[in-house]
Structure formats: C-alpha cells, structure tokens
Model the fold of this input.
Amino acid sequence: MNILKLFPAYHYTTLRCPRKIAIHETPSFIYLEQPSTTRINMAAAQHENHDRPVRPRSYQVRRYMDGFLGNIGDLQKADVLQDVILQVEGRQFPCHRLVLSAASPYFRAMFTSSMAECRQKTVVLQGLDAAAFEKILKFIYSGTLHMSLDKVQPLYQAADLLQLDYVRNACSSYMAMNVERSNCLDMYKFADVFSIDAVLKQCLPCIYKYFAKVASTEEFYGLSVNQLTEIISHDELDVREETTVWEAVVRWVQHSREDRLHHLPSILPHIRFNLLTSDDTAAILEHPLVMNISGGPELKDMILRLRTSSVKKRIGMDAEEMVLLFRSKEDDLDTRAMLCVNPRSGEYMKYTEVASVLHTVLAATVTSDNDVYMLVEESDDRLSLLQFNQQAKHVWKEKLSLHRSHPERRFGSPVERLFEVDGHLYYLAVQPTSGMVPRHKMTRPSVVLKKYQWLTDQWKDCSNPRHDELYITKAASCGGKIFLFSNTEMHRYDPRQDRWNRGTPPKSIPWPGTAVAMGTEIFCADATLSNMAVYDVEADSWRELPGWADPDRNPNLLGTFFALEGQLHVLADFNALEDDDDDDFDDLDHNDKDSNQRIYVYDRLTGTWKDSQVTLPHGPWNMGGSGLPVARIHTCLPRHDSNRWDDLRMCGYSSNVRHGFVARKPKE
Done:
C-alpha cells in the first residue's frame, strides 16, 4: 500500500538527504526523511520499466498533534482516567500522572522515583497558590495561559516551583511590559527575590523617574536596607533637591524605628551631602534620629566628611522647564527633530532622532508625571502614539496605532489634539465634513473623542458633543475637563460621567486662533493676538485682556500660546530677518541660522507682551495654533548616541534691537 494514499487531503514535498535527517514542514504536517539502503532485485532491474527504490518516510501531522492535546483536555474536563488528586490550599485537582510528568520535570521526578508521593492517591502540594495552580493545570492540558497583574506573581512562583520554564518566562515578559509608577516598587521587590533581571531592568528606571512620588508609599517602606541603598545611590534619581532623598530615608527608618535605626550609619554615605546647603546639613545633624543614635559624634564627623566629597549631581537636578517644538513635513526640513527651549535662560536642546518613522507631528502633550506623548501621522487613515523617554537610548517608543475616523470624507486637515485628564490620555479630533461650499450647504464637523486604556492598550470611544457650530477649532484641558469651543459655542467634557455640557463661549474673539490652560484658567486669542480673553473654568465666565499693542510689529502668522513657570508665553512668527547680510551668516550652515520666530512673555499686571529676546535656531518650527507642550527636560544626560541630540546651547539674544540674529555655536 502506498503510504501517501493514507493522507489524500494533505500536500507534501520531497527532498533527498543522504547524510542526515531532513525535517520538512507544511501547513498540514511535518515529515522526516531518513537515509536508507536499497536492495535491488536483479530480475526486476532487467525489466523494461525499472521500479524506483523505496525510501521510508516518517510523517508528523499537525492536526493530529493539536487534536491529541485537545482530546487530553476533554478527558480532564470529563474527569476520565484520572489517577491522582493534587491538593493545594484545601482544593482538590484530579489529574493524570502521565500528563503531569510529561509537562513538568517536578512531577516527573515525583511520580517516577521512589518518593512516597509516587504511591499516594492524594498528594498535598505546599507553597502554592490554589488559583495560580488552577491556571497552571489549564496550561498543561490546553496550552493556553491567562495572566493579569494581580495574579502574575503567584503564577510565576508556581511555575518556578514546578519547573515550567515557558510559563515562568511568559510571566517575566508580562511583568516587564507592564511596569508603571503604581507597581514599580512591588514588582522590584518581587523580581529582586527571584532574580528576574528582565523585570529589574524595567523597574529601576521607573523608580528613579518617580522617586519623589513613590517614596511616600507603603511599598517603599517595605524595602530592605539593601534595596533602599541600591535605589538612593543611583545617579539617575529624578529629584530636584537632595533633601528629597534624606526625607525619604527618614520616613523609611521611622516606619519601623526599633528595627531600622541601627542601619542609619550604613545608609547615610549614599546621601550626597555635598549637594546640600549648610542650613540643610545643620538641620540633619540636629535631627532626633542622628542625635539619639549610639555613636552620634562619629556619625556627625562622617556627615561633615561627606560634605567635602565631589559626588556629581543627580539627573533631576539639572532638569529645566522647556517648551517642546516640532516640525511638519510641509516645512520641507528634517521632521525628525524636536527643539526644547528655555525662554528664561535662552538654552535649548535639539533632539535629532525623534523617531525613525516620524512623518507629521499632529499633537503632543505632557502628563502630570512628566511623560511626553506625541501623535504622528503614518498615513491618511493611521496615526501612531509615541512616548518620549529621556533616559533611554531609543528616545521615542511606539505605544500603539490609532485609526483615523472618516479619512475619505476629509476636506482639509482635521484638528487633532492629545490631552491628559486625571491620569488618562484622550485623543480629540474635529474633522471637517465640508469643503469650499456656500455656508447654507455646510454640514457640522465630525467630533471624535477616544480614551486610552492602559491595561488593555486600546482606545475606547467616548461620547460626542451635540453642537450647532460649523467651525469648532480650539480645545484645551483644564480642571479635570476637556473644553471644545468656537466664538459661538463652548462644550465641556466630564470624563467621570462621560458627558458633554454647554458652557459660555468667548464671544469677544471672532476667530479663536490659539488657547492654552494655566491653573484654573484658559487663555485664548485670535490669530493676530490683538483680541485676548481669559476663561475661569469654575465660574464659567470670560474676561477680556489687553492684546498685542505694537502696531509696528505684528505677527504675520498664527501665534501659539504655552504656559511655562506660571507665565503665559507665545511663539510668534514675524517678517524676515532684517540683517540677512550679517557677516555671521557666512560662518554657519543654512540649518544653523536663526529663524524669524520669537518668544514673548505676557505681563498680566500691565497687559503687555514683552520680548524674551530669544530667537529660535534651525527654524521654522511648526506651531498650528494649539497650546505647545512644556516638560521638565534633563540637560545633563549620559550620551548613548552622539547623533541623538545636540549639546546644550544658547539661543540668540538681541540687545536693544527689534530683530533677531544668529545663534552662534559654542566653541569646541
């Protein structure tokens, strides 16, 4: 019988392999071909039609393997042929010794050796969580593994005990991918006990970044002394002052003073006393923990010696509030660049590798945790959400893609924004649905609001406002709500209720051009900055403000607001530079020349705009009318890649003149 006829529905391939076993895989099965010797019948060889030599083949059918595992699962569900009962935390799990032994080296040793469990009908397993063991059994019998953040640690412990490497590795990967501020300390302690390097590598940077916040949690107080010193000794601790580290140590010791006070002498060398003021040092020397510990005089001498050390600053001590600027593909320049500017000091940093797949920057926002997110356009119907990591070698990390609604109905670019409200990201899009047609034929724009769900890594649709206006252009988030408005309509979105309500529109501004939130207020202005108003979100009322008052120098393009260090700023574009023949231009490349964009600061007491005397380099930078994001940027980072960003430099200043000039590169 020809063996191939046994499988008429399968497709196969052949390959001669005289020296080694060859494995061939097809969608239906795998077969193995082995070398063989062939006996030749001499009489048959003389026959006119010579028969081909017969070569043995072995077939491994995928459907059979899948069906076999499924049949084993069916036997388990039907409680058929079970020959052992495993008891975990009082719960009983009837199983098959053969299946358990095939899946786990732990059970193979238990049931194939001379251990007492080999002969017992009921085996009690110690040190396991019953719910986790139930998931383990489901995986053994079905190959399916379900995880959640609240169950992954006992699941890892069970897999570690039962020597299930696949489950253990899957748990490690799952934990590493889901490290965040709320769980970084708990996962760090767990990973430290089990020496899970992949999880530790994700937890420690997260702890460093959010140290000021996580240092007041119960998880922090549960750290061991070795874990505590490992964390506070690191250079990348994101703290503005060293007193934050000392105060965290004090809280840790006082949480269990009798057991921890004697550790203080070994902890203090990890505090950088050379970064403290003399007043701060004196306060520490007079602190009850230092005064009452045995060996107090020696401890004080050690602190005074540490003040003379030259330990460098922590990474967060060199962070500055900076406005983030981007380019779009319409600028016909390097769209991968991001410029971070401090208008007060004139310093800037230019990141030259924003993202390898970056096209057009649509929107960006900075969360309360100083996380920077950017929305870029992949295509007409696909958007991508990127997260900025200042401490990582690869600066931008892609989070997920987002489908743009109704791309086929577009008449111009939609107004798209990113907001953070109560720790959640929101995507807002106002899509025009009419082109250049008479007003009476226009239709209302389409409004889309989506909420990013961290746990599922998906976007969820939110409710949409019922609006009448044909032009809705400006949006801002303030006071835990999202505001969408024109000069005739105002809509407020409450995330807690997933509901929109009406508010008071800025009627004094015919065409709102830019808006930004600061505190509990929203500042808004038209394209020329001549009409300005401020909205009180609590009182639902607008109040007019003095606008741009220099008739000889008006912005020729849409200005863009941003709030930095409690003051309102605007990025404005003016006419071309008046000193194009400046000799300094000859010494620099085209991309090193200053643009004609300037930053102004609003003096609310006098109602006037004041020139910050900062001219932006490498311009122009895209503005778009939305509020520009502001973040704390680390100005002294370890250099992972010499092409990643430029050194910290100074923007151009103009002294007693009304035009900008070239920003000179620092000397090598």
